[in-house]
Specification:
Blueprint: H1 3-6, H2 29-37, E1 47-48, E2 51-52, H3 54-72, H4 79-82, E3 86-89, H5 95-100, H6 110-119, E4 126-131, H7 136-156, E5 165-168, H8 174-182, E6 186-192, E7 203-209, E8 220-226, H9 233-250
Parallel strand pairs: 3-5, 4-5, 4-6
Antiparallel strand pairs: 1-2, 6-7, 7-8
Length: 258
């Protein structure tokens, strides 16, 4: 081993906490391993007196930094075009305004309405919307596999899709204003969720039948925890497709869905 290799520092963010056994001489190692594998929570991390171990503290800070980067980061400008999405923006003018004015993230302005009228199909069976939400990393990590699985699954069931839309600085309820403009039977918004210390790449899919201004939260259905440590993106896409087809068949969503 040369000097350069000796000086390399392990990337703490790459350590699998569920397999990192730090408690020395555990009384029941098998139970300890089983407990660690049952949850992504930070358990069995040991201590030095009343304080956490250095590696435990540094990993906490590293994961916190990743979460902050995901919230404050931006989805690349060319990302929507790469996946054939029409790019629009909520009424938020910046990420700072998005974080401090949630109400503006639920709305679109007249310029965005005009883009939707000119470039998007009206009256589709299903309108797919993608939004950065509170995690740009979730969009970049999941959409490459989720979107194809979702579109192929729906098309395979004979469902006609509208023009996929990307909304920068969007909140869940932005689907209502888009639905009011384009009048799809069903809308689904794939949105980055607030990062935690377990993952910064979690995405959810919110589905609503006849989306419109004034739609209440109980009318939506959500499939959450979409990430590599939860529901894998491709699997989530197929599951969402089946669920959307059911909503189309029964013509209802949310608490009214049987």
């Amino acid at each position: 081993m040369n000097f350069e290799e000796e000086c390399q520092i392990t990337d703490l963010a790459e350590i699998d906490l569920q397999r990192d056994l730090q408690v020395p001489n555990s009384v029941n190692k098998g139970l300890y391993e089983e407990m660690k594998l049952s949850t992504p929570a930070r358990i069995g991390v040991w201590r030095c007196g009343p304080r956490p171990l250095t590696n435990t503290l540094l990993r906490f800070r590293a994961d916190h930094a990743v979460a902050q980067d995901s919230v404050l980061g931006e989805v690349p400008a060319d990302f929507p075009e790469k996946y054939c999405m029409v790019a629009v923006q909520s009424r938020c003018k910046s990420k700072d305004e998005y974080l401090t004015r949630p109400d503006l993230g639920r709305k679109i302005n007249e310029e965005t309405r005009e883009i939707l009228r000119k470039r998007c199909q009206k009256g589709a069976m299903v309108q797919i919307i993608v939004s950065d939400g509170l995690s740009s990393k979730a969009v970049e990590a999941n959409i490459p596999n989720l979107l194809p699985a979702l579109t192929q699954g729906l098309e395979g069931m004979g469902v006609k899709l509208g023009t996929t839309i990307f909304v920068r600085y969007g909140r869940v309820a932005v689907m209502d204003m888009i639905g009011d403009e384009l009048k799809p039977e069903v809308a689904v918004i794939l949105i980055g969720e607030r990062p935690g210390l377990g993952t910064a790449e979690s995405m959810s899919g919110y589905i609503g039948y006849k989306p419109r201004i004034g739609m209440v939260e109980s009318e939506r259905v959500v499939i959450s925890n979409i990430h590599r440590g939860g529901i894998p993106a491709a699997e989530a896409g197929a599951h969402l497709a089946s669920f959307i087809k059911k909503i189309l068949d029964v013509q209802s969503s949310g608490v009214r869905l049987e």
